[in-house]
Automatic annotation (TrEMBL):
Tree of life domain: Eukaryota
Pfam families named among the record's database cross-references: Cupin_2
Record's protein name: Cupin type-2 domain-containing protein
Classification via Gene3D superfamilies: Jelly Rolls
Location of the Cupin type-2 domain: 109-179
Stored InterPro entries: Cupin_2, OryJ/VirC-like, RmlC-like_jellyroll, RmlC_Cupin_sf
Amino acid sequence: MSTSNRCTEFPAPGLRNPFRYVTGHDSNGDPTFLLVSSTLPIKPQRFPLKPFKTDHGDHRAVMLDGEGAQSIMYSSNSNPVELTNDVDLEFARINRPSLRIPKGCVVRMVDFAPGGESNMHRALSLGIGTVCEGEVELSLSKDGKVNRILRPGDVIINRCAMHRWRNTSTEKPARVLFVMLDVEPVFVHGRPLEFDMGELMKEYGDYKEGKGANKKT
C-alpha cells in the first residue's frame, strides 16, 4: 500500500465523519437525545430534541501503521447492560476498550485504507460485522482460497474463526461496523480454540483472553 494512501486518523480520507446518536430520558422521564462525547464532563449533558446535537464517538486510533483506523461507538462491561443512571455511558466514556470486554460488548467502526488489510487473527469473541462503505474480502485461510466478498449491507457472523480482512479497492477506503460480544470458552473436537492476534496484538497490548485453557496475554 502506498504511504499516501495510509490512514493517519479516523475517519479515513474520503469517508464522512459518522455521527453517533444516543438516547436517554430527561428529568421528566421523557425520551431525549444525549450528548456523551469524551470531550465533555463525565456526567452526560442532555439537550432537547431541538436544537439538535450529537457527537462522533470515542477513543479513536490508527491501526497497523495506517492500514486502517478505528472509532469506538459504544462499550459496556456487563450483560445485561446497566442503563440506570447512565452507568454504561460513564463506563464507555472513561474506558478505552481492548479488543473485547469480558462479559460485555464493544461497538467498533473500522475504516480500511485503499488496499489496506489485516493479518490473520482470531479473537475469542463473537464478531458481528456489517459493511457500510466499499467492498472488503474476508479470508478464512492464509492462501486466501476460502473467502467471501462483502459489499454494503452484507453481514458477517464470525464465531471465532481465524480470518483476515482486505479492502479490495486500491483507490477508495472501506468501512465496517463491528459488534464484539464475549463468549464462553470454545472447543472444537474437544480441543480449545486459541487466541491469536498476530500483528494486531500491538493494538491491544493490555488484552487478556478468557480463563484457563483460553488465557492469553
